[in-house]
Automatic annotation (TrEMBL):
Organism field: Anopheles albimanus (New world malaria mosquito)
Superkingdom field: Eukaryota
Name assigned to this protein: Larval cuticle protein A2B
CC per GO annotation: extracellular matrix; extracellular space
GO MF annotation terms: structural constituent of cuticle
Amino acid sequence: APPKAINPIPNSPLVGSGTVYSSQSVSRIKSIIMKFSAVFAVSVAIVMVSLSSTAHAAIAAVPVVAPAVPINTNYDPLPQYTYAYNVQDALTGDSKSQQETRDGDIVRGSYSLVEPDGTLRTVIYTADPVNGFNAVVQRGPLVPQAVVPVAPAPVARVVG
């Protein structure tokens, strides 16, 4: 099975379980939470002041200061990467591969593995801001590897 994917498209969930969000998405969520917290704190202060019997004096005493929002300096406006791996383990029978390329907001890739019934499953996927995440699953027979016959080793005769 392929490793868990990082969601390449903001506001577009990946199909399947265990969605992992990029550090950019997490930073964006943190920023929204901090802004909401500031608005909520100010709202509570205003309600408390309006309920107070000394409202006029209290309004002057409550400073309204929004918390500083941290700036994410790790943002890459055009992320790019390519990776691939291939496992062919004759001892365990494990056979799988994956490759993926990202260029900005466009991700393309594929992975394949041998199912327990011996069929080959290949998944070809793309993700972009317009179409979201799309995958095409192909199943087919496993192509057997050609067996190369090995000639027997010559036997040396001992003359004595």
